[in-house]
Please model this.
Amino acid sequence: MPSKKFSPPLSDVVPERDSRVVRCYAERVKGLGLSDRMTRSLAGTAAHIAVWLSLNGQGLGTFDIRLLDRFMRHACRCPGWKLEGRRLGPQNRWSAVRFLRHLLETGHAEAPPEVEAGGLLVAQFLDTLKERGYARSTIQWTGNLCRHFIVWLHLSGIRLAAADEPVRRRFLAHDCACAHPGFIDSPTGFAGSDSSGSRLRLFAAFLADQAVIPAPEVPQPGAERSGHLDAFLLWLRRHRGLRDATIELYERYIRTLLPALGDDPGAYDAARVRTAILDRLEVASRNQAANEASAFRMYLRFLGASGLCRPELVHAVPTIPGLRGASLPRHVGRNDIERMIATCDVTTPVGVRDRAALLLLARLALRAGDVAGLHLDDIDWDRAVIRVSGKSRRGAKLPLPQDVGDALRDYILEARPRSDERKVFLRSLAPHRPLARQSIGSSIVSRAIRRAGIRGAGPASSHLFRHSAATNLLRDGAPLEAIGALLRHNSPDTTAIYARVDVRMLRELAQPWPFEGEA
Model:
């Protein structure tokens, strides 16, 4: 609702000092060359604010974003504005923010100390992002978000020191009407997003480093955990040497079954165990149910050995039948592998990094986790070997081929971002965190397949290189024992799956199919 023209003289309601400020502002607006309607709206809103403040015992020197918010929400019965108790509209908010900017610039009002202090912290935070190599557009967007957060805290009456995770979630979900000259000039319609949440967590980590907010409590590695499941997960790490990613899978599988079984292992019986797992077949895939059954079987063994349940309950876990080896390992020929490697643009840092990662996959048949987990200290340049840990924590040393070593050297010395991180492969964009295992297959291998124009390779996966290396070696006459040693298989049965892809040898063993009428 646009403001009505104020008919009585300002001096009848507003103190002379404030009325003089409003008149000066009106003259300044007239000199901007705006339309008559816009000029009347800006001047009228300024006069309205002065009247409303005076009626509430305030002066223009006290006007800030909190009073602006109250002004916008008041049911207007101010003399000279016949709004009949209605609230003001969005146009009036824009005009009010513009008038507040004028008051701040001319020294007739002051920014709240909390907002000024928060703005200084935001500026320091953006400096750290610049030092860490963030893109200019990302820094600008993050700065707007953090300043928005500071303004919202002030409008909500929340101290910055109390900005914990629940407060940040409230901010990401609020219906935005925030505005502050010099911070955010107009409401943004902000409703929160995953990227906003991650940037805000980054700002919160900076505030914790500056001791502005309490640092979140992080459990110490190796500390004793409470609960039977937590004790089991700790046992997997300490005594079975499993990786964190594998332990997380075990936890997820077991927690899926616990609601049907309860938290008291002493109350478990064979019927409950069997029913809980078989019920999963109605809502989950066969492979998912088989994985959950296998994880729970190991959990029951741990509980039985600890005296928390009857040991024989392990036999109550049903075996979910599956078709082992129902599908052949997907693979491509050597020429296709070399073509994928050759498509990397070595004139860019990303291309240099991707080429080094693909060569590790192709020449040494590494898993994605091996490549993502490779540390700078794992490379022995003098002896030309690298150390990988595989699926477990048992390390193995592998020879470093010349072309792989050259590619790693070029990446580390020329293309790798400057970072204190000890892992070899890092994100090319800030923050320069280590590459995730999933990024090797879903990003690097996927791009290589697409650039090389290879069809029929199946879903993009780093295992395409591993399967191809084993299959091509087998076709060249390499024995399965040697292939198993390269792939670091613990069991010959695992390597035996590649025998089924040697079509030429299978043709020699296959018997002709008898047709009707033949003896």
